[in-house]
Every structure is written in C-alpha cells, then in structure tokens.
Amino acid sequence: xxxLIETFYTAFDALxxxxxAACYHPDIRFxxxxxxxxxxxxxxxxxxxxxxxxQGKSFSVAFSEVKTEGSSGQARWEAHYHYGQRPVHxxxxxxxxxxxxxxxxxxxxxxxxxxxxxxxxxxxxxxxxTPFFRKQLQKQARQRLAxxxxxxxx
Length: 154
Prior knowledge:
The protein has helices spanning 2-13, 17-22, 41-54, 112-120, 122-127, 131-153; strands spanning 24-32, 36-39, 60-69, 72-83, 86-99, 102-109.
C-alpha cells in the first residue's frame, strides 16, 4: 500500500487528478479542515477542481515519511502554491485506510490558522483561528465544488 500513497502524491505533484482519483475506493471518505467530509465522487472531484485550478501556475507537492501497516497508512506532505497573489506553504499530515487495494479513508490535518495567515493575510491573522472562519471556509469550498461538479455534468 506504500506504493499506492506514493502514486497518489506523485500524481498530485503532476496535477494528474485522474490518477489520484484512481487510487480511491468508490466508497472513499475524505476529510480535511478546508472541505470537511467528502464522500464518493465528491472526493475525486475535489482533487480534479484543485488540480485544474493550479494548471500553469507555480505549484509543487513533496511527500515524505510514508508508512503503512496492514490496512492503514500515513504520510507527511507539503504543498507550495499561490492563493490569489499570496504564496502558501502548507504542511499536512495524512492518515489512510485501505480496502480492496484502494484508499477508502483519507484524512488530512493541517494548521488552518497558519494556512489562513498565509492565504488571507491580515484577515486570516484576525479570524483564521475561529470556528466561524472554519465554517465559512468549508461552506465556500463546498459551494465551489458544487459549481465545479455542475459544470462537469454538463
């Protein structure tokens, strides 16, 4: 399963969302601070949306400390990109569970306040630590994903 995690992040660095989604089980459950919980096709579509948004831009992913044991695994990864005009360096810890040779659970954890300060500047510094901010961010992220999925369905 270690090679599955490595394939996933190598594809992410190449912005190959289809290869990323192919690593997921149809019953995937993804969770992170920005989107909350996504299930099934939503998770793959989230990566499709993110990869599409970074095409032709300065973007990179590096991963390390990939470990697997039985039906679970973990990795650390870092993303460098721009959110609007602001550079972001996000450090993420990922936990995985596997079923039928695919990733069935994927949980990303990162310091949302640190991310907010980088991505949003003063606004992030002032409110990025609040539950209100997390709720609004998740609402906006899910709305963006819904619009992306609607366009894809056409």
